[in-house]
Amino acid sequence: MKFDLWYSEYQTKSLKLSTKVKDVLYTGKSEFQEIQIIDTYDFGKVLILDNTYQTTERDEFIYHELISHPALFTHPNPKTVLVIGGGDGGTVREVVKHPSVESIDFVELDEKVVEACKEHMPKLSCEIDNPKVNTLFTDGIKYVAETEKKYDVILVDCPDPVGPAKGLFEEEFYKNVFKCLTDDGIMVQQTESPLFNTDLIKDVGNYLKEAGFGIIKPLVCTIPTYPSGFWNFTVASKKYNPLESDREEIKEKLKEIDTIYYDEDVHIGVFLATPKYLK
Amino acid sequence: MKFDLWYSEYQTKSLKLSTKVKDVLYTGKSEFQEIQIIDTYDFGKVLILDNTYQTTERDEFIYHELISHPALFTHPNPKTVLVIGGGDGGTVREVVKHPSVESIDFVELDEKVVEACKEHMPKLSCEIDNPKVNTLFTDGIKYVAETEKKYDVILVDCPDPVGPAKGLFEEEFYKNVFKCLTDDGIMVQQTESPLFNTDLIKDVGNYLKEAGFGIIKPLVCTIPTYPSGFWNFTVASKKYNPLESDREEIKEKLKEIDTIYYDEDVHIGVFLATPKYLK
């Protein structure tokens, strides 16, 4: 007998995305969640947490470049960066590319995810041990509530708003993020699907406004393995408007920074391309 | 016994997207293909041709607005439009919204698709009987080869390049489209996934260049039920560059045209947001 092994995620009760599995590379359980890393035919290695696709080798550049570079190129000189979540290391890898950045505090809840990705997904986790990166295994919600540090950029690379990540989408969290940013600081968070989660996107926008951010901009892109594939990041800024960035300056800086997706046009395009109904 | 009915599309040999089915509304076979219309929980009514998702009520506005408005707003005064394919009628519906358009030739291979959509998907097919629309059931490849008519805008709303649609992605077709366009004409075609079909997108770009188009621009968006969700249209223009359109003028015209997704910012954004690797 010969079996085909497939991994299926129920993205809603009535929508299922299935990938054929080449190999199961890791399967484990931490105190927070179930962790799997599988190898697939279409997406290469895939990280799965609690039966939810998190990131894939094939398309991770879309997510990781778009959560990081629009903010890091909007700020003229980002030196200190806080990354909350993103245990696979992809976001940290993009931040490390910026020569202006002197230190990155990488706050991830689940050490087991980082360990698994360090072993099985080195393309993503390759910069976690960079001397500029200071890794802290703790709750990001608690961290921003308690720390007295200030950051130029805060990137919230969080899972869906269920379980321990729920608080990353609540009013209190955004107030603390505002507090932890310098006077010209910028934050970015993944904020789910503009097709399936419009209410959440609206709520986050309102919380950010109440927290004191003057500039709040959604950006859209495609993340193939997320529900509907249509995805959204929200950028909140105290001073700099990403739509007013100098494209020539970004182009100049990009001579030193390798990207696959992001360039000076994408910097503007992902904001402008946001559908009318979401604005 | 109680059964759950699901529809699954193998989007590749190793990637499957499944939707739970509320009801099967239509199932038939024409001389060209198998036709199904199902009602689903997440996407409303869905048109399926030869086991491939074509369009869904829930997200069809993304596809239909982006295949039509970027070209129709780039051209300052489109009067004559040719729509090839798009038997569901969604593209025709968007074209009809433009007051400048005087006549639309709607060339669709399969009359049975149009009949089924007229009966079961009136939200899309509602303008097919508009007096401005002249429907011809014939092969679009043959039509552009033989007609002596000239159009301001040609929209190629075609299925994947397999079976009878293969010729819609070949050199000869683009030469004929060029011939059928006025001196300042513009064409748009859906050109598959920027993740899975980069070679095809590159080939189409080259064919369009060889056909004589001076301005060729890819635009990107998300179509949730297509393979990878990451999707691409190619715009080819003889004279007008969509990136040089006057956004204020578009905004003014949009006071008379209802859209859900498209606006004057999206007009620019979808082109600028095209990933660096695709440019």
From TrEMBL, chains A, B:
Name the record gives this protein: Polyamine aminopropyltransferase
E.C. number: 2.5.1.16
Domain of life of the organism encoding this protein: Archaea
GO biological process, one term: spermidine biosynthetic process
Keywords: Polyamine biosynthesis, Spermidine biosynthesis, Transferase
Top EC category: transferase
Entries under CDD domains matching the protein: AdoMet_MTases
Binding-site positions, S-methyl-5'-thioadenosine: Q33, E108, D139, G140, P164
Single annotated GO MF: spermidine synthase activity
Family: Belongs to the spermidine/spermine synthase family.
Subunit structure: Homodimer or homotetramer.
Transmembrane segments: none
Function: Catalyzes the irreversible transfer of a propylamine group from the amino donor S-adenosylmethioninamine (decarboxy-AdoMet) to putrescine (1,4-diaminobutane) to yield spermidine.
Catalytic activity: S-adenosyl 3-(methylsulfanyl)propylamine + putrescine = S-methyl-5'-thioadenosine + spermidine + H(+)
Coiled-coil parts of chain: none
Metabolic or biological pathway, per its Swiss-Prot or TrEMBL entry: Amine and polyamine biosynthesis; spermidine biosynthesis; spermidine from putrescine: step 1/1
Catalytic residues identified in the record: D157 (proton acceptor)
Amino-acid positions noted as binding spermidine in the UniProt annotation, renumbered to this chain: H64, D88, D157, C158, P159, D160
Domain called PABS: residue spans: 4-238
Stored SUPFAM superfamilies: S-adenosyl-L-methionine-dependent methyltransferases
Record HAMAP family: Spermidine_synth
